[in-house]
Design brief:
5 strands, TMUB1/2, transmembrane, TMUB2 protein, Ubiquitin-like_domsf, Ubiquitin-like (UB roll), alpha+beta
Length: about 150
């Protein structure tokens, strides 16, 4: 047992599971051992980096005893990953955020907020106090949402 290390697998709902592995084990092996049949749905994040290369060993990623790996189960990418299981190893850049309506929504809202702030600054007389407070509130709320989505 001297070559075994314990890794804490932490989930989005703040639950944890302890994984007992060897440093020579791979990311793919860890997924297979603890999430059999769900390997394509599981995303591992360690020190802010998405672990995409399934062949990398835990030692090469500098994962040591009592490290925390954040686990996320992706429901939407399950079908695409099942069809193309090697997508993350053959094209690592392609597994980033896909171009779609959901990813265009944030820049679109940023643009709209920028235009409204431009009008607020140049045509201040048209904005009442409640409108200004509402604009500030929407901007702060959107900032929290944007940083929550992309700042992880």
């Amino acid at each position: 047992c001297s070559g075994l290390i314990k890794i804490r697998l932490k989930f989005l709902n703040d639950t944890e599971e302890v994984a007992v592995v060897r440093p020579e084990d791979t990311v793919g092996g860890l997924k297979s051992k603890y999430f059999p049949g769900q390997e394509s749905q599981m995303k591992f994040i360690y020190r802010g980096q998405l672990l995409q290369d399934q062949g990398r060993t835990l030692r090469s990623l500098r994962i040591t005893d009592n490290c925390v790996i954040h686990c996320h189960r992706s429901h939407s990418a399950a079908a695409a990953a099942a069809v193309l299981p090697d997508a993350s190893t053959t094209a690592p850049d392609a597994s980033g955020l896909p171009l779609g309506a959901g990813n265009l929504l944030v820049p679109a809202i940023m643009t709209v907020l920028g235009v409204v702030w431009y009008f607020h600054i140049n045509y201040r007389q048209l904005f009442t106090a409640p409108a200004t407070v509402s604009l500030i509130g929407v901007t702060v709320l959107f900032s929290f949402l944007a940083f929550g989505m992309y700042g992880q």
